[in-house]
Amino acid sequence: WDEALPLGNGIMGCLVWGDGQPLKLSLDRADLWDLRPVPEWSSPDYNYATMRRWVAEGRIDDLHRLYDDPYDHNAGPTKIPAGRLELYFPSPVRVQSSDLDITSAVARVTLTDGTLIEIIQYAQDPVGLLRITGPSQPQVTLVAPAFGGPIDTLAQTTSLQTGSLARLGYQEPQRFQTTTSQSFVQQAWGGFSFSVAVAWHTQGPKTEIAWSIATNKRAAHPRDQAIHHVERALKTGYKKIFQQHEKWWAAYWRQSSITVPNQLIERQWYLDTYKFGSASRQGCPPISLQAVWTADTGTIPPWKGDFHHDLNTQLSYWPCYSGNHLTEGLAYIDWLWQTKGEAARFARNFFNLPGINVPMTTDLEGKQIGGWHQYTHSATTTAWLSHHFYLHWRYTMDRDFLKDRAYPYLKEAAIFLAAVTEKDGQGKRFLPLSSSPEINDNRLEAWLPPTSNYDLALMRWLFSTAAGMAHELGLDEEQQRWTQVLSELPELSVSPEDGRLLIAPAMPLKESHRHFSHLLAIHPLGLIRWENGPQDQNIIRQALNEMERLGPDYWCGYSYAWQASMAARAKDGERAEKALEIFSKAFCSPNSFHLNGDQTQSGYSRFTYRPFTLEGNMAAAAGLQEMLLASYNDVIEIMPAVPASWQKASFRGLRAEGAFIVSAQRHNGRITQVDIVAERGGVLKMKNPFSGKINWKLKKARLIQEGDTLIFSTEKDGKITATNF
What we know:
The strands form seven sheets. This protein has an eight-stranded antiparallel beta sheet with strand order 7-8-9-10-15-14-13-12. The longest helix is centred in the middle third of the chain and has 22 residues, at about 400-420. By secondary structure, the chain is an alpha+beta fold. α5 crosses α18 (about 615-630). It is built from 18 helices and 28 strands.
């Protein structure tokens, strides 16, 4: 299943796999969740004060029992799968070939007798369609998830070895069947139910099949709703629906494109950008660990298929900003905003503090579901999530969004962090409980000397940015408040020997580690920037050297993807390219899914397992974009980190901070053309990428400074074209 052809539309997903005996379509819907409460959260010991006391007393067994064990051993809360369509073709017919056309999001399967099967997950409705043309017509079977199967007898379940779906305790579904349709209704936990329906009709050599999934959260009678979608799709027909489907995807691909000489990483970028469009749509839940492609293994998905906020959701949305897919990216920001009330309840009920704090592992409703307590109950998770509100503001310059969403969210996060920090004898703020994902795993030593660089970077970024937003909105008193708190935070911890970033005061990283949490100040937060001069350049250089020195023994695929962005910030195109190459060839399934471990067993990591999660894919896409366009320093830089060997490269439609849409071409190792559209207007600064005479074509734009940094004044929809052949 994890090598299948993936289809999706943000709310529904489908994985196409199998040899034709049967051909399998694993079905999923993003909002299928078992939302049972965690019983342990009702314990009188479940609060921040008791956690602090237990940490101080070294009571690690009690901490594991209350915080960690429920995640490993309780069946829910968890994401749940939707079932499977199985198409049995007459023996000895088998699958001969299969491919995925990402330009129009259609899977095509050819059988040994020439039968062609075309499959789409319709871009604009919760329905999937399949058209079969040829001599072979299948027997269709709708298979419900094995909720009523035998309960396995695992000695001990873990976050990865999760146990069978039967552990959830559901009854068998209610099934319905006619000569041309099948459906079932599955009752789940707490009155939640969902229905899957499939129907088909045959006319001559063609059979069309449609399926849909509906829940009683969206419709009072989910089976009726699913049947309605299926019948409407069959009445409209595959041909007409595919035309609309193709239009949606054509518009998606018009947003941006990339051409680089390294075909491996270019191909990976297109596949990852395709998966982003398949997995994230405004109005749908955001990308979870597996999004709309929940594991089809008969078991509870790895890590409950949850929303992991210690890097997974954050990395999953890195590419949408410069990749110019902001509308799809709003699935994440809208969901964080909609679940803000739950973040306030967590701050109030667990910490007894004002403001908001998002749990690091959450269910669909943003509720805490547990896991390693040093991170799941971190105080700074919301600061990292706030970075995405900031990025959306900077890449759109939407002032209403700043006023109504971005600043209010950051303000509530800042209120919480100001309350949870304490002051030492010198008046400096610190976090009483500080950690750095996922240093020292879930051992007692994972609680670090206050304050870790991870926590400190996030707090320094948050208070600085909140002050800047307040200034932009003319809120002088609030600006002063956040500036004052910022002044009370210590500086980041660096090694006195070589200036590298430490994990925490006097605590260097001593071994290979998958999570670069101590380097957040470099990327993505940009507190430390190459452009700031020699001191920052040394810190960044030392961080990259540390990666090389300690090696990748305990890296995951996403580590390489993240390294590419780090290297791009250091203008090191060769290192960035190498990281993306290793990611693409060693850590991805043949269908491009990120499988975390080194599938080639070539020494790129000692992790050789294969749990599928999406954040590595999206971080890899973002890494290539960082090589091609930088704007984090208020100055646009064209191709800041491309290898010297890339004599020819181009991109179209990448988005820069300030709401500028940028296209560029490189020939014979030099930039020959840049085109910029000012979506909102304003001052545009660009590092001069040209040598020699520049030919300008300006519309609603004026060049006001030449030299190493070009400065333009632009109006809304202003256009700049510069050529240097």
